[in-house]
Structure of Dolichyl-diphosphooligosaccharide--protein glycosyltransferase subunit OST2:
Amino acid sequence: MARKDVKGVKKVSVKEIPAVEKPFNKSTTTTTTTTTSSKISWYEELSKSIDTALIQYKKDLASSRRLRLIDTFLAFLMISGIVQFAFCILGGSNPFNTFLSGFGACVGQFVLTVALRVQSFDKNPEIAFGEYIFASLLLHFVLVHFMNQLA
């Protein structure tokens, strides 16, 4: 049976450990069956949410002249940045600082304009516009100094 060692530790032989049988568990068996109905419902749910967002966006555009103006300026900034990047790839970037300043101005102004768009419908849009003007001036001041064109 069990014998005691000199230090008082009880040694147990393998024969003394009772065997424990595991009951069959249904959660251990996994089946991977995918149905097309879940994919269709996921696609339909995504389609409905996109349609709802577009309908709400069109309503907002129809009701707010400020939103149309901001979104048009965002589109202009995006197109301007794409044109600058394409020119850098195709035409070369001889004064690389100039490219970085121009592209940074587009990206920075885009980010600031998105922040203005988010804040323009809060309680105090005048403060949001003031912050936008200050941040835009600071951004362009830094970029002009980066270009080394300020005399």
Summary: The first strand starts at residue 3 and ends at 4. The mean pLDDT is 79.
